[in-house]
Amino acid sequence: RPRVLSGIQPTAGSFHLGNYLGAVRQWVALQETHDAFYMVVDLHAITVPQDPKELRANTRLAAAQLLAAGLDPDRCTLFVQSHVPEHAQLAWVMNCLTGFGEAGRMTQFKDKSAKQGADRATVGLFTYPVLQVADILLYQANEVPVGEDQRQHIELTRDLAERFNGRFGEAFTVPSAYILKETAKIFDLQDPSIKMSKSASTPKGLINLLDEPKATAKKVKSAVTDTDTVIRFDPVDKPGVSNLLSIYSVLTGAGVAELEEKYAGKGYGALKTDLAEVMVEFVTPFRERTQQYLDDPETLDSILAKGAEKARAVAAETLARTYDMVGFLPAK
Ligand code: TYM
């Protein structure tokens, strides 16, 4: 079986619809066909300040949501990044192969550090993408299911894998990004020119999966569209309506053309009312399942412990080989 690996940050509160449609949904599907490794990336999370208590709670919350979304610990390996020390260890080696300018060209770093100011942005934030490279290469992943915003980090992974292989010998599988066109980028409901994200200026455009279903329905109904009335998929001229159609289509399995036909001659109100209902039907059981996992932290922690053990077996092997190829003296 080909292998996939991906990760998600333990953000405060809840995953948003972009995380789910852009990534997690694909993770669930790929566990059926691939040898799948998925993790909660707490090492990445501390590249920006975190309250220790909240970080711990958010890490459990992230794992609970992944299980609620449909990851099955018997079908995939689900673990927490800091439980597998090889991530930090390989990251160091990769840091020493990465150009300073090369790291400085990462657009997510440029955006985040510009927002924080040069003195507050940490070296950890600078080297964030290199840790991600290590995450992927440790498992010899063939494919990495992510949203469009991660593409540049996967390109860096490919470059560094090839660089290492060229300099020291074949050590790493060169991975590909697995990005589905329809859900590569879910847009903010209030400003369909920007991606849905926690850092958007207004929470009204952000669908948090664990919010009250009623609040979610309200956000869908007040989504920004355009002054036209025609329901047509056209991301350039009708980004708001197209975003709603994409979301509707993937959540229900109905094709976009089918939806265009269904809503021909009807107004935006009808589309939004129906999509709000679809969304409520999706988030209501999701919230319940997440709560069930949170109510039983012992079971949750033991799932994560087993996952870490399975992950470590693979990661340790890759790291040992890498250390040897680099020329480190064996400890034995
Ligand atoms: P993170 O936690 O920011 O996001 C998790 C996943 O959600 C996707 N995503 C979106 N997809 C579509 N539309 C959106 N609006 C949207 N917003 C977020 C992201 O593309 C991502 O796939 N650096 C990664 C975590 C990471 C990782 C890894 C990923 C660490 N190590 C190794 C893959 C492999 C991140 O911050 O994701």
TrEMBL record:
Broadest EC class assigned to this enzyme: ligase
Family matches, as CDD domains: TrpRS_core (cd00806)
Keyword Aminoacyl-tRNA synthetase included in the entry's annotation: yes
Sites where the protein binds L-tryptophan: D135
Keyword hit for ATP-binding: yes
Keywords from the named record: Aminoacyl-tRNA synthetase, ATP-binding, Cytoplasm, Ligase, Nucleotide-binding, Protein biosynthesis
UniProt short sequence motif 'KMSKS' region, positions renumbered to this chain: 195-199
GO molecular function, one term: ligase activity
Family: Belongs to the class-I aminoacyl-tRNA synthetase family.
Subunit structure of this chain's protein: Homodimer.
Protein's name in the database: Tryptophan--tRNA ligase
Organism this protein belongs to: Streptomyces ambofaciens
